[in-house]
Amino acid sequence: MDPKGLAAIVTGGGSGLGAETARQLAKAGAKVAVFDLNQEGVDAVAKEIGGIGLKCDVTSSDSATAAIAKAKEAHGAARILINCAGVGTPKRIVGRDGPIPLADFEAVVRVNLFGTFNMLRLVAADASKLDPVDADGARGVVVNVASVAAFDGQIGQAAYGSSKGAVAALTLPAARELAQFGIRVMAIAPGIISTPMLKGLPEPAQKSLGTQVPFPARLGEPSEFASLVMHIVSNQYLNGEVIRMDGSIRMAPK
């Protein structure tokens, strides 16, 4: 699918992976709507790429529906959805203060899993009614963001790992169900990427993390993630799969 002239939505687009993905989609000619809870972040990215920035809580049906409606009014119904919104506060199941509060576990799952599914269902419903763009009958593509923690979850990542594992497990059944509409569903499982959160660590800590990667022995770049997104969008035969983008790292227990 050629993104040129097509409407796209990127969640978590105010920074990091989402912001870089929004930039590359816009560069390829897509009409990009940037969603994030951080209004300042989405406004900045939207201004930079010539798109629109919308404050959106992906865990809320009402908030997501309203933001999608505004994006649709500006660009038409989205055919491309990139779900980058996510959180990952580490906490042990049983810590010094006792068991992890259930609300803390739920908060991570709500954003990473419920938020991803919420956007998927709403955008797919709109895209399913559009005319196909090619002879294959393609109407849209969704790229969700899992994590290597879905497979190599570390101590303290029970909430994050299980939420991302669920996103990975969602990929195939969603792809199979939405195939009837010509909508593909893929997921990327990034490893250690140089996002704003990691850039906040001291330089020695960043280098130490990078040396854990077999090759190349460094942190991944958001631009590499975005390049993979762009390939998925354009490569019609990629569907129903989770791609690890991790330099072949396998995370240690801690």
UniProtKB/TrEMBL annotation:
One of its GO terms (molecular function) is 3-oxoacyl-[acyl-carrier-protein] reductase (NADPH) activity. InterPro entries: KR_dom, NAD(P)-bd_dom_sf, Sc_DH/Rdtase_CS, SDR_fam. Residues 6-191 form the Ketoreductase domain. PROSITE patterns: ADH_SHORT. Keywords: Oxidoreductase. Belongs to the short-chain dehydrogenases/reductases (SDR) family. This is 3-oxoacyl-[acyl-carrier-protein] reductase FabG. It comes from Variibacter gotjawalensis. The gene is fabG_8.
